[in-house]
Amino acid sequence: MERLGPFGPAPLLAVGVSGGPHSLALAILASEWVAVRGGRVLALVADHGLRPGSAAEARAVLAQLGGLGIAVRLLPLELSPGPGLHERAREARLAALLAAAGAEGAPWLLLGHHRADQAETVAFRALRGSGEAGLAGMAPARPAVEALVLRPLLGVAPGRIEAFLAARRLDPLRDPSNDDPRFARARLRLALGDPGGEGPGIAALAAAGEGFAARRARMRAAMAERLAGAAEFREEGWARLDRAALGRDAVAEAALSALIRALGGGVHPPARAAVSALLARGGGSLGGALWRGGLVLREPARCALPVPARAGVMWDGRWRVLSAPGGTMVGARGAGPRIEGLPSLVAAGLPVLRNAAGEIIAAPGREGGWAVEFSPISGPLA
Length: 382
Hints:
By secondary structure, this protein is α+β, with helices and mostly antiparallel strands. About 40% of the residues lie in helices and about 20% in strands. Strands 3-2-1-4-6-5 form a six-stranded mixed sheet, with helices on both faces. Strands 7-8-11-10-9 form a five-stranded antiparallel sheet. A four-stranded antiparallel sheet has the order 12-15-16-17, with no helix packed on it.
């Protein structure tokens, strides 16, 4: 934990707990670590609701954690069956965990991924043709809007974690889907054939991930330096970009990709070949962002449809509603009177508040009893 800090006095740590061996062990270790520092742990248990008896399993996990003196909170996910279930479940669970951590005022969210998980991630991404950034695997620390995501067990073999629980005579929950060959990750796990995570295959994959992670860190540092000299960011969610200062090398491509992802509201970065082509052209549209002249901004025609304006709602992958009157909707401003100091294309993509009749009741530069912040779903540019 110390290498992931600093944490300051009396830290509040949120821990995502499925009830499986790794997250259960993490909750115990985190609780003991934080207790001597005057802090506390809150275990967040998500019920995906996809299997008969999942609610009972979640209640059993809550009871087990409570018996260990760990505070708990249940998070119902209410997922529906369908394609991409595992991936959708992971995304929904992480979103729910982050939202709960933010609501509880916990600046850190701990997840129980271990060494074999990292190896599987590297192998899985390699099979999918991921680039260097993807082959770096999961980061030990990753910033999100609501909390800093930490993975303290990322270098620990799962066999050691199982031994820790066995020594304490604790019986964790076992998810049968982890070994279900219908799922790609389960097939990969079976192919690796190393449940303890201590064999040479897992070691090689984990080492490869560490090497790519070091390269990723160097690239991110270079990218941040390049953006600092080439881009001028504005609070309305756009930027002025100096093409000459940006350059034409690999660092320029990475910086432009991050810029497009954040200002365009994308969850995933655009394809590398598309970024390279955009850089060569010196302008154009990609990933929901528009590069025109010295401006990079959200392409107004690609803005999301209006959604109910409730506190915490993310609109268009870029704007988070902090507060708003009931019964209102947040959506794109569209064409309208000129706003001083803002290019018309930027103004068209700004969020506004509308009433039930569709009339704008709060627009940039006007009072309206609401508040939003530019908080791209992709997180910080680096």
